[in-house]
Write a structure and sequence with these properties.
Layout lengths: L5 H4 L1 H10 L1 H14 L6 E4 L7 H4 L3 E3 L3 H9 L4 E2 L13 E7 L8 H11 E12 L4 H8 L15 H10 L2 E10 L9 E4 L6 E8 L3
Parallel strand pairs: 1-2, 1-4, 2-3, 4-5
Antiparallel strand pairs: 5-8, 6-7, 6-8
């Protein structure tokens, strides 16, 4: 029996989540904006339905799910078929690469980071948004993983693990920010530097000179 790809089969349900959780969505966008370069040409890898590429003004996106790409196109995103581990771009082409809740679905995240490193210009940066495995939400997702349509086969990472993988892939660390989400047991909801309190963490790393 053919295995169902949840990102094709439930693409609309995935997309509607952002409308149903506007505060979380807004906080995640705000956290990304803290570290995403305001200038230069960049790409989003694993862009899904374009919920981040569109409001962030990213000119080109990559997504393997056809159903998700179709929704992104309706949203006005220039999106092509492709996977993080084998990007269809030339070396030293972009100023930044964005990945939002993409790494947990990758079979070989280190290979994806090396590909990002390859297509980035010197001093270009990778910006990664994750649900921190050590956070309240990360632990909740892990507990309910078997029954989840989307996260059943995911592998969650801590912010520290992502930083280590980036360093091994030729990046140097710059900074991280975290979004304090509803239920994070921290007073208020906001974006602040570092990690360890908020469930959504954004990490930025720069391509070192060879």
């Amino acid at each position: 029996m053919k295995q169902i790809n949840p990102f094709d089969h439930y693409a609309l349900e995935y997309d509607l989540w952002f409308d149903e959780h506007p505060l979380v969505y807004s906080l995640e966008l705000s956290a990304i904006k803290e570290l995403l370069p305001q200038r230069g040409v960049g790409i989003e890898v694993g862009a899904g339905t374009g919920r981040f590429a569109q409001p962030l003004g990213i000119s080109l996106a990559v997504e393997p799910s056809e159903a998700m790409r179709e929704i992104a196109v309706i949203r006005g995103v220039n999106i092509i078929d492709g996977v993080a581990e084998s990007l269809p771009f030339k070396n030293d082409s972009y100023d930044f690469v964005l990945m939002v809740t993409t790494v947990c679905f990758l079979k070989q995240p280190e290979l994806a980071f090396k590909e990002a490193h390859r297509v980035l210009k010197t001093d270009g940066c990778i910006v990664i948004g994750i649900i921190d495995r050590e956070s309240r939400l990360g632990k909740k997702y892990a507990e309910n993983q078997r029954s989840s349509k989307f996260y059943k086969d995911a592998h969650f990472y801590s912010a520290q693990e992502i930083q280590q993988k980036l360093l091994k892939s030729g990046f140097k660390m710059i900074q991280s920010v975290q979004a304090i989400l509803p239920g994070d047991n921290i007073k208020g909801t906001k974006v602040k530097s570092g990690y360890g309190e908020g469930s959504f963490v954004v990490i930025k790393a720069v391509k070192s000179q060879s």
